[in-house]
Amino acid sequence: VTSNQTRADIYRRMYRAFASDETIRKLIMAGTVSVIYYSGRGQEAIPAAVSTLLTDDDYITTNYRGIHDIIAKGASLGELFAEIFGRATGVNKAKGGLLHVVDPRVGVMANSAIVAGTVPIANGLALWSSMTESDAVTISYFGDGSTNIGAFHESLNMAAVWDLPVVFVCQNNGYGQYIPRMQTMRVEEIATRADSYGMPGVRVDGNDPDAMYEVAKAAVDRARAGQGPTLIEAMTYRFMGHNFGMDRMEYMPKDEYQAAVAADPVPAYRRRLIEEGALSEAEIAELEAQVEREVSEGIEFALASPYPDPTDVVSDVYAEVVPA
Amino acid sequence: MSSTKMTLLQAINTTLDYALANDPAVFIIGEDIVDPKGGGFGQTKGLSTKYGTKRIREAPISEQAIVGASIGAAMIGAKPIVEIMVADFHAVCFDQVVNHAAKMRYMSGGRTTVPIVIRGLTGGGLNFGAQHSQSVEAWMANVPGLKVAIASNPADMKGILLEAIDDPDPVIVFEPLALYNTSGAVPDGPYKVHLGTAAVAREGNDVTVVSYGAQVPVALGAAERLAAEEGTEVEVIDLRWLVPWDRETVLTSVRKTRRCVILHQAVRRSGFGAEIAATVAEECFWQLDGPVVRIAGKNTPIPTSPALEDAAVPQLPEIISTLRRVATT
Questions:
Q1: SS3 category, A196
Q2: pLDDT digit string (tens) for A302-322?
Q3: Is the CB of A117 less than 8 angstroms away from the CB of B100?
Q4: Beta strands at A201-205 and A179-180: parallel, antiparallel or unpaired
Q5: How far is CA B161 from the centre of its chain?
Q6: pLDDT tens digits along B175-220
Q7: Can you tell me the distance from the alpha carbon of A81 to that of B12, in angstroms, rounded to the nearest whole number?
């Protein structure tokens, strides 16, 4: 059974991702910022539960819909928001933006707008951790659509062959861009794909933070003990469609969508923690107020930051400046 | 500096050995690289026996996973050397090379870097056909974030590899298969060919030939014939690095000879020669005595029959006649 302290930590991480997402979308709707945005709303429980098992010395890789993964891992919000808003103080000097933002200071190592693009890279982080006898574990986050591309198959096979300390976490939200998942694969359970690589595969309700924690803990412990990789299929749902503001979500059945939103994992976990006496209403309210202050300060920092100098366009292509 | 005579193939093997012995961050990842075979042509022979199969890491036939694994390891302190067996196979890992390795430094604002070397054989000449004989350097040179080098002799092979291994960015190193068995003196010790430095392989005042890789010895052969038979002195520049390339050495030579011929095995259309020709035209048009001329591969796939392959890539008679024409106009 998960301790109350861990459950509070999970909720804090969920709420940090939730509050950030809500705030960013409000700013987009108000026209305060104009940015391409892929919301992680609805999927927060997965990285929140996983991240409580990790330290800053453990690594994650993610993809364009990874802001919740990055926030749950502990990235500093001000520099993250500034990056998303294209400001000079962004953690990646505004050269990456939402689709590519990383923060190696907290182990957020790679992020890609290419589907499954960082899955092979997660293996490399795990490989060098293993070769240097560090006990670091790498988490590779990706979506259900990623499990149809070649890089995914190559990477899971390699990780199994080399017993790499990596956990593959598929956030199965049921859609690849605008297409329902079952139009693009015959297997009902993505977790069963693990069989063909010779690694354990587990399906779990990714919107149940306690269940997610138990499954993730077994996989992280296994990886840390040098026993090799695991594929976790975490069932979840995407509340804001593919790209926020550009997706009318007419391809998502209304009843399915409404049921998913009614079961929103953030308020659901809040209710559960209070009902089960893990946290009091007052304790939760205090935790949420702290997070909201952090989000507000981060937004203020980002919006007050200047845009980068256009001359900065040619730096960071190479270590040295070479003729353009 | 003392030196040892060896083939280009031996230069690859002994340089990898040197890097593995002197830097614990170096490891090799690729396909068919472990003993007893030790590489398709023995490039890595003996290394897995000497350094173990953790550092000489035999991978599944999964080029995307291979390049991706090298990227991840490089981000946290490793200096991986990837073998992509044949340059044509870059096509099956192109996403990891051009969208990930090349762009990580930029997309992260310098927070992550990818000091990997991707080496492997390139080019035609042994009748392996259209999918094992391509010269793909222009694909790579077009991608900001990659550095690209190609050797034409055993000494440069060593110098380029050692420079590339210590370079903080991803470097693609091409090894011309046609030159694997050619010999030359290779400096002992930590000899490097510095980033972006060309070599004047032969001095001359009448016409400049800019080339690289397998065509350099062909250009030198043509130059010797023209000197002996007609007294025409050809200056041969071996670029060695395509990204970044040595503009100063090329432009200085062209300003001296006032004539420029570019020679490469890769297809003419959008080949690297177009970049050199455009730069020469932009920088020293008024010092030229005639148009810049390209000698390059036909705009075809590489055919398999020897009779056809010889027709697809530049041969000595065409090179000699072109140099003669350019030198006398």
A1: helix
A2: 999 999 999 999 999 999 987
A3: yes
A4: unpaired
A5: 10
A6: 999 999 999 999 999 999 999 999 999 999 999 999 999 999 999 9
A7: 47
* Helix residue ranges, H only, A1-136: 4-29, 45-51, 67-73, 77-84, 119-131
ipTM for this model? 0.97
Judge whether residue A1 has pLDDT over 80.
no
Q: Which two tokens stand for residue B236?
A: 């041969």
Asked about B194 being catalytic, the answer comes back as: no
Complete DSSP assignment for A263-315: T-HHHHHHHHHHHTTSS-HHHHHHHHHHHHHHHHHHHHHHHHSPPPPGGGGGT
Strand partners, A143: A171
Please report, to the nearest 10 degrees, the dihedral formed by the alpha carbons of residues B252, B187, B37, A196 taken in order: -60
Q: CB count, 10 Å around CB of A307?
A: 10
Query: What is the residue whose two structure tokens read 């709420």?
Result: A15
Q: Which of B54, B62, B68 sits opposite A124 (nearest CB)?
A: B68
Summarised one tens digit per residue, pLDDT across range A279-299 is 999 999 999 999 999 999 999
Report chain B's C-alpha Rg in angstroms.
Answer: 20
Task: With CB atoms and an 8 Å threshold, state whether B65 touches A128.
Answer: no
User: Tell me: the pLDDT tens digits for A103-134?
Assistant: 999 999 999 999 999 999 999 999 999 999 99
**In chain B, what residues touch A155 (CB-CB under 8 Å)?**
62, 64-65, 68
Least Cα distance to A264 among A44, A21, A9 occurs for: A44
Q: In A, which residues are within 8 Å of B247 by CB distance? A: 323
Q: Residues of chain B with pLDDT > 70: what percent?
A: 100
**Angle (deg, nearest 10), helices A281-304 and A77-84:** 50
Give the count of alpha carbons within 13 A of B180, CB side only.
16
Q: In angstroms, rounded to a whole number, what is the distance separating the alpha carbons of residues B306 and B319?
A: 19
**Residue B61 in tokens:** 């036939």
Best residue in A56, A149, A316, A320 for a mutation probing chain B (most B CBs within 10 Å)? A316
Q: Where are the alpha helices (DSSP H) in chain B?
A: 8-22, 47-51, 63-75, 94, 104-107, 137-141, 154-166, 215-230, 247-257, 272-284, 306-312, 316-327
Residue B125 has a pLDDT of 80
Which H helix or E strand runs over A182? none
